[in-house]
Amino acid sequence: MCAKALDGVRVIDMSHAYNGPFCTMQMADHGAEVIKVEPLSGDQTRNWMPFYENSSDSGYYAFLNRGKKGITLDMKSDEGKKVFAELVKTADVVVENFRPGALERMGFAYEELKKINPRIILASSSGFGQYGPLVERPAYDVIAQAMGGIMSITGEVGAPPCKVGPGLGDNFTGTYLAGAIAMALYHREKTGVGNRIDVAMTDAIFSALENALPFYDAYGEILGRAGCIDPATSPYDRYECKDGYIVTGAASEKLWVCFCDAIGRPDLVTDERFSTVALRCTRRDELTEEILKTTKTKTVAEMEKDFLDNGVPCGPILDIEQMVNHPHFIAREMVLEVEHPTIGKMKIQGIPVKFTESPGSVDAPAPLLGQHTDEVLKCILGYSDEKIRELRENKVI
User: What is the DSSP letter of 46?
Assistant: First the structure.
């Protein structure tokens, strides 16, 4: 087996819910030893749906925490803090997504962690970051989507603001955090110095608003909800067919010509109403009427073939069942099956980052609550069976 990109990196994962565990999941997929530290009651997502038949373990938790080692630890106790400090000595990275100030109140501010391990990297994610006027506010994804701006531009014209389906605030934040940790590890290789990483969910969403800020800056225009269009180009939308919808875009003049050929309307190329991108955007409704004259007469499959035959990017709108069974996503190993100790065989999303020389893989299911506590304390910290038994009796673990 090839070495993975993060082989030899040890991560102490203090995070819960979604964005932090999503970050450390990616790191575990690519070889990091991730030790997930949970309170004795467990991560809150252990109670989140879905649940499988004959198992009380959450499928949500199982997907998000695959490949990690799980221990329980009472971080409110002095003995628990001592165990955590000893783990930090052995680690490369600590990941946490508590409300700002929580780690400091435990006695583990970054400056304190550096005293324990001068090379440590502390990676923190939170709703609003580690500083700023809103630093104290708690957040879930829907709040980050609302205050980060994406809900204001998501949905149909005239409809209420709408959350994007999955937790993009968590996804973006977790992915940014994983990338930042990789940068910090590289920086440490060059300098020997650790780092403090601060990623806010609202910042992550705001950074992903694409051209909303340029439109405001250039025109004073506040983009609103506009369905599936792209305000910067046209045609670029969802178009109705006889049996459903197809999405497509022609974001260059060359593709515009190809698009017109695909819908059997080469006359539109020389139509003065649509002769430039700017005109096609300002007269979007008129253009859509012309396009629908063709698409409404054909099936999605027929339109897909016509667009592809003319080199125009397009695609049907797939639901989860269609994706799970699609030969492309199967070939890309984006649908994996793992064996969970209580759930049994379960399907999970695969690894989107592909390396040729150091490919990632999912090598273990998510841990049961406290599954690896004894192993970690014994093999990493060198605790005796008697010491572990004492910690358990004192409800530290």
Answer: G
Residues 133 and 144: their CA atoms lie apart, in Å, by 15
pLDDT of 133 reads 98
Token readout for 182 is 């990789």
H-run or E-run covering 255? helix 253-262
Residue 200: burial class (beta carbons within 10 Å; 0-12, 13-18, 19+): buried
**CA 109, CA 100: separation in Å to the nearest integer?**
10
Question: E strands along the chain, which residues?
Answer: 10-13, 33-38, 69-72, 93-96, 121-126, 195-200, 236-241, 244-249, 314-316, 335-340, 344-349
Q: Is the pTM of this model over 0.90?
A: yes
Omega of the bond prior to 235 within 30 degrees of 0, cis? yes
DSSP element (H, E) containing 261: helix 253-262
CA distance 302 to 381: 63
Compute the distance between CA of residue 284 and CA of residue 159 in angstroms, rounded to an integer.
19
248 CB-near residues (< 8 Å, 6+ apart) = 235, 236, 237, 239, 259, 307, 312, 313, 314, 315
Taking the C-alpha atoms of residue 185 and residue 93, their distance in angstroms, rounded to an integer, is 9
| Residues tagged active-site | 170
Task: Encode pLDDT of 334-363 as tens digits.
Answer: 999 999 999 999 999 999 999 999 999 999
